[in-house]
User: Which sequence fits this backbone?
């Protein structure tokens, strides 16, 4: 039984006479405890897919099901509630609110949901220590390195123990060492706590940590990789350029 | 359930914390925005602290203080014959005893050795010694009580020691009366403290009647009632038998004085409201920027599950914080202003109006009004941007900056604004009543059209700018055009400030001309005897006929015309000054400026029957025209007068006054005191010698000052011109928030472009070039605001002068050329001045930091 699945998910931008199909009938099922990577050339609709699955944007047609409930029937307030209770996000940029400390940033989804502040901060600290930032809780984002910022964002995504964490190129801005750290954390969340993760990335070395990779092109899934065997990253790179050229 | 309430609390608290941190992160901007609220609140608070105190002082100085159960006066405050009233009251059930008094508070001149300390006022209370003691107790602390029918004896409440410690038993002191100076002897002191605002003197009723030249009259009735009687029932019963011309336990209304102060209150409140309105502009502007600036943060909050409401709430809380802080500071500042103002104004009031101002007391109304409007302004101004913040899509967090297209909105606002402005001009041209509305409509139209006017104005002036600032000018224009609505709001703020300035200039010019005109027309006499306060006669003790007759006996004197006074009200309750003139003599010494009716026949008609000439202000407030009937409340009950003309003279053109003959004033109001005397000299008489002779007689009546009319006119024109400068003060006050607005916009523009300025500097732009760019931008804003301000100012001044014409103050419209020049100069100077600080900040930016600025 998949925890999240989409049903001919379609998103059209632009005008009626010049439609841009950002996503074109995508069918995807994400299993409980799965670490899924989405790859594809620039403009293939990866981010769009993630936004639709996260309820950040409404599909033109098609549906997203989270734990068997249809997200398309929810109104804005219900979607907000869903995002803060059942989903976690990590983006490439602007993840943290600059005027809040790392601890407060992590606590936001809890506080917005009405958890009393002391408890929320306690849970934030726990989440921060999971990503190795236990002694950075009182720092402002500007006082953290890029990698630390992304780990803090991950701590926030994990703090509510969401059904699914959606990450859009979380390592896109990082050097390879920081990038490795972040991916390690993601992997750990999957292995230790059975966290389900959907990750968009360009980086084959990052994607190599996933359980499965789907390849998007022109808004459609065109290939899949279940990642068995050695030399994963090389194999992914080849597959990606094949998709891009096809 | 508790979890739910907890919810809200935690989230709210988090929002508040975030708000505070954001505000702290942009300290300069926070301060500038908050200042706008501070200013408006301070203005409203200080106005509502100070002016009601002044009103109260006036009222208090007229209030009868008494130990009796019930005090009855005429609604107009005027006198009446006891025979018609006392028996009626005595007949009411549960009334124990009744006594009639004649009491009046009046200004006293400084006599040789001033017997009453610093107090410029005195209350003389005439009591009927026998019946007064039936109504209440007069326990004595020293000496004896007054005796029936005695003259020249006075007793004081114990509190007199505070005013005049030198008064002891058997001291003799002089007092002004309608019959000239009179000596009294202190025969006793009452145990009671008495009024604290002005010394009180008790004399016999007959002495008081002589002093006020009101033989046989009283103006107050004091009543004692049975111990177990229901007081309100007795009051109702008395009211029943006396009818509506009388009132119980009322503060007598110093109608004229209080009325004009209340107009002042309204004007200053409007000013405060205008300042807050500009403040609202500022906050609105700032918050709109804040929303753009923070869209990443806001989008991120939405992405991690904040609802629209929560986002809106956060920004509302933020503006509320500014509103509350601004209000608190504004209240403190307002209080200090009021205290300082009283300290400064105290002497003026003392000298000109004979009123001692009380210490400032904080009253709840002022507190609520000021803080309410401050906080509400912040809330309202913050709400719209906060709502649009709530609508930010979570995806905003992930997108690089988006530039919204404002062109379309600007075009629409231009069209709507121009339609409004054109309608305003049409209304203005139809003149009279709708003119003021037309002026306001025009102003609103300009404000609405402003965003659409920014680009054309910038384009229009760009050749000039390029000439002056070369390439930096182009950059500056680009900056304004990029954010036309912000430039528009700033321009509008400046516009309103400058428009008020232009209007003030036009009004001052017009009024000064009007006063000079009236002064020349009206004072055709040679010598003038004025009481201590001209135009407010309630507190004046005039003179009986002997003064005028003694003057007439002088060989140099040809005619003496006098003015007498009573207060009254029309059937609708409108308070009126009734002025008694002699239809034969008065036209010789003074002349009216007739606006309706015939000058030739008006005076003859005034002498026959109950006919009246009204000031044009009174005509329009009462809605009357020539031939109508006017029912006046008099000491003899309601009397019907016929309106025969409308006319103004310099002393009455701004009051609701009714001129009737002195014969009618005596018959209907029992008033025969001259409060103003005008003398015409015989042909060939020497002015100086005549004045000396007049002065000798006036020495016996120290309540009057004798002056050559020419001198008096000059001082009058000068003082009223001085009073007109109040308009300028108002205009300059309004310019303060306008300056704040400019400073705010320029600062925000620079904050927003920090990175851009960094790039300009990194690629080799010099500090000087950056400064020139900002100066050029300020200049463009200044020109824009001034241009709009001048247009709006001309419309507003025209509208208000036309509107004044419609209520009878016909003032010729003078094109306020000087005001316009001043407005342009001030607008541009203000813009340049406010650009100094932001320009300095921008040039001092550290290049590396600026490039990293997010
Ligand atoms: N708001 C929008 N308006 C119009 N077109 C959009 C919008 N967002 C995305 N698109 C278009 O939809 C398509 C898919 O965009 P999307 O951002 O999902 O691609 P992506 O796979 O995430 O690309 P990248 O790897 O560059 O991030 C692109 O062609 C893009 O131009
Ligand atoms: Mg993308």
Assistant:
């Amino acid at each position: 039984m998949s925890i999240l699945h989409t049903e001919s998910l379609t998103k059209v931008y632009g005008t009626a006479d010049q439609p841009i199909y950002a996503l074109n009938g995508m069918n995807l099922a994400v299993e409980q405890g799965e670490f899924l990577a989405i790859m594809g050339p620039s403009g293939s609709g990866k981010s769009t897919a993630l936004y639709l699955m996260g309820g950040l944007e409404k599909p033109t047609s098609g549906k997203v099901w989270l734990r068997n409930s249809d997200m398309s029937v929810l109104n804005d307030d219900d979607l907000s509630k869903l995002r803060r209770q059942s989903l976690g996000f990590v983006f490439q940029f602007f993840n943290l609110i600059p005027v809040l400390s790392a601890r407060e940033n992590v606590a936001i989804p809890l506080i917005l949901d009405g958890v009393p502040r002391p408890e929320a901060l306690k849970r934030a600290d726990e989440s921060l220590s999971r990503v190795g930032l236990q002694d950075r809780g009182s720092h402002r984002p500007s006082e953290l390195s890029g990698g630390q910022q992304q780990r803090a964002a991950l701590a926030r995504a994990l703090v509510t123990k969401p059904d699914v964490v959606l990450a859009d190129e979380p390592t896109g801005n990082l050097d390879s060492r920081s990038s490795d750290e972040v991916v390690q954390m993601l992997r750990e969340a999957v292995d230790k706590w059975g966290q389900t993760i959907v990750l968009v990335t360009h980086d084959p070395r990052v994607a190599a940590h996933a359980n499965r990779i789907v390849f998007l092109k022109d808004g459609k899934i065109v290939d899949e990789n279940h990642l068995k065997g050695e030399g994963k990253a090389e194999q992914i790179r080849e597959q990606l350029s094949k998709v891009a050229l096809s | 359930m508790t979890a739910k309430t907890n919810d809200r609390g935690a989230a709210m608290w988090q929002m508040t914390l975030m708000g505070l941190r954001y505000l702290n992160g942009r300290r300069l901007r926070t301060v500038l925005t908050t200042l706008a609220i501070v200013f408006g609140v301070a203005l409203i608070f200080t106005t509502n602290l100070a002016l009601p105190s002044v009103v109260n002082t006036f009222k208090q100085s007229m209030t009868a203080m008494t130990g009796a159960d019930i005090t009855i006066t005429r609604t107009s405050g005027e006198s009446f014959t006891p025979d018609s009233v006392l028996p009626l009251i005595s007949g009411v059930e549960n009334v124990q005893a009744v006594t009639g008094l004649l009491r009046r508070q009046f200004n006293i001149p400084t006599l040789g050795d001033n017997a009453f300390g610093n107090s410029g006022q005195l209350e003389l209370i005439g009591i009927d010694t026998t019946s007064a003691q039936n109504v209440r107790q007069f326990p004595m602390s020293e000496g004896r009580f007054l005796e029936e029918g005695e003259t020249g004896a006075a007793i004081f409440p114990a509190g007199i020691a505070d005013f005049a410690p030198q008064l002891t038993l058997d001291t003799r002191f002089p007092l002004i009366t309608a019959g000239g100076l009179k000596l009294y002897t202190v025969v006793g002191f009452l145990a009671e403290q008495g009024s604290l605002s002005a010394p009180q003197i008790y004399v016999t009723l007959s002495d008081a009647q002589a002093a006020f030249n009101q033989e046989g009259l009283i103006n107050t009735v004091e009543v004692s009632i049975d111990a177990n009687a229901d007081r309100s029932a007795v009051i109702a019963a008395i009211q029943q038998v006396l009818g509506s011309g009388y009132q119980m336990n009322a503060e007598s209304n110093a109608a004229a004085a209080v009325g004009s102060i209340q107009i002042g209150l309204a004007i200053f409140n409007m000013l405060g409201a205008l300042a807050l309105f500009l403040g609202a502009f500022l906050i609105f502007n700032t918050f709109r920027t804040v929303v753009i600036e923070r869209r990443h943060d806001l989008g991120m909050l939405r992405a991690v599950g904040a609802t629209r409401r929560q986002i809106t709430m956060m920004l509302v809380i933020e503006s509320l914080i500014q509103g509350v802080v601004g209000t608190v500071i504004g209240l403190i500042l307002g209080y200090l202003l009021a205290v300082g103002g009283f300290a400064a104004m105290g002497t003026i009031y003392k000298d000109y109006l004979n009123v001692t101002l009380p210490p400032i007391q904080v009253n709840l109304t002022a507190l609520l009004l000021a803080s309410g409007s401050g906080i509400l302004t912040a809330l309202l101004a913050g709400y719209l941007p906060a709502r649009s913040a709530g609508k930010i899509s979570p995806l905003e967090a992930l997108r690089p900056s988006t530039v919204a297209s404002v062109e379309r909105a600007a075009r629409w606002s231009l069209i709507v604004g121009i339609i409004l402005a054109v309608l305003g001009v049409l209304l203005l041209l139809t003149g009279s009543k709708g003119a003021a509305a037309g002026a306001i409509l025009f102003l609103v139209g300009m404000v609405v059209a402003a965003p659409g006017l920014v680009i054309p104005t910038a384009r229009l002036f760009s050749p000039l700018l390029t000439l002056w600032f070369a390439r930096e000018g182009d950059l500056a224009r680009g900056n304004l055009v990029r954010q036309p609505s912000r430039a528009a709001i700033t321009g509008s703020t400046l516009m309103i400030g400058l428009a008020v300035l232009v209007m003030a200039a036009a009004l001052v010019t017009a009024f000064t001309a009007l006063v000079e005109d009236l002064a020349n027309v009206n004072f055709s006499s040679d010598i003038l005897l004025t009481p201590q306060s001209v135009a407010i006669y309630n507190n004046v003790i005039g003179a009986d006929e002997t003064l005028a007759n003694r003057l007439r006996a002088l060989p140099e004197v040809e005619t003496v015309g006098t003015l007498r006074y009573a207060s009254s009200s029309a059937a609708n309750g409108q308070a009126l000054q009734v002025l008694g003139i002699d239809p034969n003599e008065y036209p010789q010494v003074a002349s009216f400026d007739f606006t309706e009716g015939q000058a030739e026949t008006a005076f003859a008609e005034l002498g026959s029957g109950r006919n009246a000439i009204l000031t044009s202000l009174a005509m329009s407030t009462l809605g009357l025209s020539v031939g109508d009937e006017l029912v006046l409340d008099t000491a003899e009950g309601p009397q019907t007068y016929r309106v025969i003309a409308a006319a103004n003279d310099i002393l009455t053109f701004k009051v609701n006054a009714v001129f009737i003959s002195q014969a009618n004033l005596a018959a209907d109001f029992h008033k025969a005191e001259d409060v103003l005397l005008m003398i015409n000299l015989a042909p060939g008489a020497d002015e100086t010698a005549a004045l000396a002779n007049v002065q000798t007689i006036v020495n016996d009546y120290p309540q009057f000052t004798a002056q050559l009319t020419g001198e008096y006119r000059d001082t009058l024109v000068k003082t009223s011109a001085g009073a007109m400068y109040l308009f300028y003060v108002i205009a300059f006050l309004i310019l303060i928030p306008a300056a704040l607005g400019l400073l705010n916009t320029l600062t925000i523009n620079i904050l927003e472009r920090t990175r851009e300025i960094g790039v300009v500097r990194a690629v080799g732009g010099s500090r000087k070039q950056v400064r020139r760019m900002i100066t050029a931008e300020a200049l463009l804003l200044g020109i824009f605001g001034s241009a709009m301000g001048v247009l709006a100012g001309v419309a507003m001044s025209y509208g208000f002068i036309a509107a004044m014409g419609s209520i009878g103050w016909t003032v010729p419209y003078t094109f306020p050329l000087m005001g316009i020049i001043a407005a342009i100069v001030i607008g541009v100077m203000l813009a340049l001045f406010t650009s100094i600080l932001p320009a300095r900040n921008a040039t001092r930016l550290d290049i590396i930091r600026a490039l990293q600025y997010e």
